[in-house]
Amino acid sequence: AQRVTQPEKLLSVFKGAPVELKCNYSYSGSPELFWYVQYSRQRLQLLLRHISRESIKGFTADLNKGETSFHLKKPFAQEEDSAMYYCALSGPNTGNQFYFGTGTSLTVIP
Amino acid sequence: EAGVAQSPRYKIIEKRQSVAFWCNPISGHATLYWYQQILGQGPKLLIQFQNNGVVDDSQLPKDRFSAERLKGVDSTLKIQPAKLEDSAVYLCASSFHSSGGALDTQYFGPGTRLTVL
């Protein structure tokens, strides 16, 4: 069965410190993976998707099929990065339905 | 462009009552999604429309939930009768492509927060 696991509900880092938000998945085949973000009082929005291999707001994520992980990383955290982050999975095996993790609340301490 | 609109933003009802939510997707978007997000959890897909047809409603509790998308534009989600465990934020999203997939982007509305007493 398809599943997305985000082991950390809460994560706090100091401004300027590196940050890594963990995401592990369960999927038979080649998944499509995404990170969504929700800033305070804003809508849930796409941050990045693995197929684009892009860097958005300094964040990157690498798909590791061996470890079935898609961790989100940023070398230097900023206060404006404080938000709720959701890892999501989709793909042909899910009928292109999205499965979201439970989310990680990131707080960047000034 | 205008974003996905939802109403109402908040609703409080008693158990066994009925409630309806409305969603207006971004103009031209073929696919519309309804998600349920219970406190402390990620969004869970309830139903997905492609134009005015249902693509996936496997996780919709059909004994009490119903949804329609007339004319392939606006959509309504109804709960009748509501239970305490239906308390959640109901999110509507839309995307341009009809086939979904890795390059499609879902745009979310602000959500409707439902409290069932």
Report the strand count of chain B: 11
Q: What is the succession of H and E elements of chain B?
A: EEEEEEEEEEE
Helix content of chain A: under 10%
- The amount of beta strand of chain B, in percent, is over 45%
Instruction: Enumerate how many helices of chain B there are, as a single number.
Output: 0
Oligomer status: heterodimer
From the spread of the alpha carbons, the general shape of chain B counts as globular
Radius of gyration of chain B, CA atoms, in whole angstroms: 13 Å
Class from secondary-structure proportions of chain B: mainly beta
Largest β sheet strand count, sense and barrel closure of chain A: 6 strands, mixed
Head-to-tail CA distance between termini of chain B:
37 Å
The percent range for strand residues of chain A is 35-45%
Chain-averaged pLDDT of chain A: 92
pLDDT averaged residue by residue of chain B: 92
What class do helices, strands and sheet pairing of chain A give? mainly beta
Describe this structure in words.
- The complex is a heterodimer of chains A (110) and B (117).
- Chain A has 110 residues and is an all-beta fold.
- Chain A has no helices and eleven strands.
- The model of chain A has no long low-confidence stretch (mean pLDDT 92).
- Chain B is an all-beta fold.
- In chain B, the strands form two sheets. In chain B, strands 2, 4, 5, 6, 9, 10 and 11 form a seven-stranded mixed β-sheet that branches. In chain B, strands 1-3-8-7 form a four-stranded antiparallel β-sheet, with no helix packed on it.
- Chain B is globular and about 40 Å long.
- Chain B starts with a strand and ends with a strand.
- Chain A binds chain B through residues 4, 9, 32, 43-46, 49-52, 86, 88, 90-91, 95-103, and chain B through 3-4, 33, 40-45, 48, 55-56, 91, 93, 99-103, 105-111.
